[in-house]
Amino acid sequence: MTTAGRPVREALIDAAADLLVQRGYRAVRMRDVAAAAGVSRQTVYNEFGDKWGLAQAVVLRDHERYLDGIDHVLSGHDDLYSAVEAAVLFTLELSADDPLKKTVLTGTDGEELLPLLTTRAQPVLFAAKERLVEHALRQWPELDREAFTEIADTAVRLAMSHIVLPAEPPERVARMIARTVTRYLDIPEKPLVP
């Protein structure tokens, strides 16, 4: 089934994302999402089960797009330190400018959605870690899979904590996480350019 040339699921997620940013979680109604996508309310329920399932789908789709960007960023670097630094900086800057993440973290009714990035963030964290590990091991096959998987989990959690509660400038956080990763793996940092 399609709506305006797009698959129904994508149209519903687009509509829900827009409404979440405009109104906040509590004010979004399934009938409003259905109307914005040009389908029946029952179609929304059939596709997502309930409003929480719809919100999860919005966050996961947003996260997949973000991970596509991370793949691109990682591919642009020859050494692990600068790749991690660039990926973390990309993450923090994108999150700071992303209207959906702003809604989740600071917007109206944000506390309703905050678990999607904190206590119920397993799908987001797992997908990020797995994608990073697979990409890094393709790009740097000499890395120890077990050690890199451990440190990737730590790096993702550190970056998430700085998204939720930023305390330092993004550049500084990016360098700190890159140092943490490379030191854990006993890889020399990229020499500083004077």
UniProtKB/TrEMBL annotation:
Positions of the HTH tetR-type domain: 6-66
InterPro entries: AlkX_C (IPR040611), Homeodomain-like_sf (IPR009057), HTH-type_TetR-like_transc_reg (IPR050109), HTH_TetR (IPR001647)
Name of the protein described by the UniProt record: AcrR family transcriptional regulator
Keywords for this protein: DNA-binding, Transcription, Transcription regulation
Keyword Transcription carried by entry: yes
DNA-binding region (UniProt annotation): 29-48
GO-annotated biological processes: negative regulation of DNA-templated transcription
Alphabetized Pfam families for the sequence: TetR_C_35, TetR_N
Alphabetized GO MF terms: DNA-binding transcription factor activity; transcription cis-regulatory region binding
